[in-house]
Amino acid sequence: MYYSHPYIRSNSNTQQTNHSINVVGEGMISVEPDRAIALLGVVTEDKNLSQAQRKNAENATNVINALLQQNVPRTNIQTFDYRINLNYDYKEGEQLFRGYQVTNLLQVIIEPVDRMGTIVDIAVENGANTVRNVQITVANKEQFYEEALKKAVEKAQVKASIIAQEIGVSIRAVPFKLNEVPTREDGRPRPMVLGVSTENTTTPIEAGQMQITAQVEAEFRY
C-alpha cells in the first residue's frame, strides 16, 4: 500500500504531534540532441622528433582549415591534448627504440548534430587519423533539466495526495521539506558509435533521443 513504511512518519517530541508523508518524485523529458562533440586527432610517428612534430603540425593545420571552411566556428575548435611519446619494440627481452609519436587532439563542437558525419569525413580526408569520444548532447541542458525538475515536484505532490487520500487525511499543499536529488544521467553528453563510411557515402549518424531526468525528495505534513 502507498502508506506503508517509510512514507509515513510521526514526531512525538513536540507538543503537537506532527505526522508526515515522505515521497520521491521523478521527472523525465525526451529531447532531440542538437550538438555533437568529438575528439579529432592527428597522430604521427618518426624516428626523428623534429620530423614527427613537423608532419603533425602540417596535418593538424590542414584539419583545422578544413573545419573552418565547413563553417565550424573557430571558438568550437579547441586543443584538447598534445603529447609526445617514445615508442619501443621488445624483442627477446630487449627494448628497442622505434621512434617518436606525436599526438594532437582537437575537441570539436558541431551544430547541428546531423553534420557530424560530414565533418568527421572531411577531417579524415585532410589528415585526421584518430576519432575519439564522439558524443551527442543538447546546448541548453539547464533549460531542459529545469523542465524535468518541475515535473519531479509535480509528481511528488501527486503521490503525496494519493497517499493522503488513501489514509483519509489532508496534507498541506506546500511541502515541509523539498530536496533535489542528484541524478547520474541528467543530460550529460552520451557516447555514440560512428558507422564506417565508404568512398561514396557519408559516415552515418543516428542521434536518436536523450532522456533528461530530475528527482526530488519531499516531506508533506498533516
Structural account:
The structure is a single chain. Helix content is 26%, strand content 40%. It is an alpha+beta fold and 222 residues long. It folds into 2 domains: 8-32 and 140-221, Translation Initiation Factor IF3, CATH 3.30.110.170; 35-137, Protein of unknown function (DUF541), domain 2 (Alpha-Beta Plaits). Helix 1 packs antiparallel against helix 2 (116-125). The chain starts with 7 loop residues before the first strand and ends with a strand. Mean pLDDT is 86; it is low at 1-6 and 190-196.
Q: Tell me the quaternary state.
A: single chain
Query: What best-fitting shape do the alpha-carbon axes yield?
Result: elongated
Q: How many E-type strands?
A: 9
CATH topological fold name of the largest domain: Translation Initiation Factor IF3
Any idea how many domains?
2
CATH class of the largest domain: Alpha Beta
Which percent range describes the beta-strand content?
Answer: 35-45%
Topology as a string of helices (H) and strands (E): EEEHEEHEHEEE
Biggest pleated-sheet summary? 5 strands, antiparallel
The CATH superfamily of the largest domain is: Protein of unknown function (DUF541), domain 1
Cα-atom radius of gyration? 27 Å
The percentage helix is 25-40%
Question: How are the strands ordered across the major sheet?
Answer: 4-5-3-6-8
User: How many H/I helices?
Assistant: 3
By secondary-structure content and strand pairing, the structural class works out as alpha+beta
Low-confidence stretches: 1-6, 190-196
Q: For the terminal residues, how far apart are their CA atoms?
A: 19 Å
What CATH architecture of the largest domain do you see?
2-Layer Sandwich
What is the average per-residue confidence, as pLDDT, rounded to a whole number?
A: 86
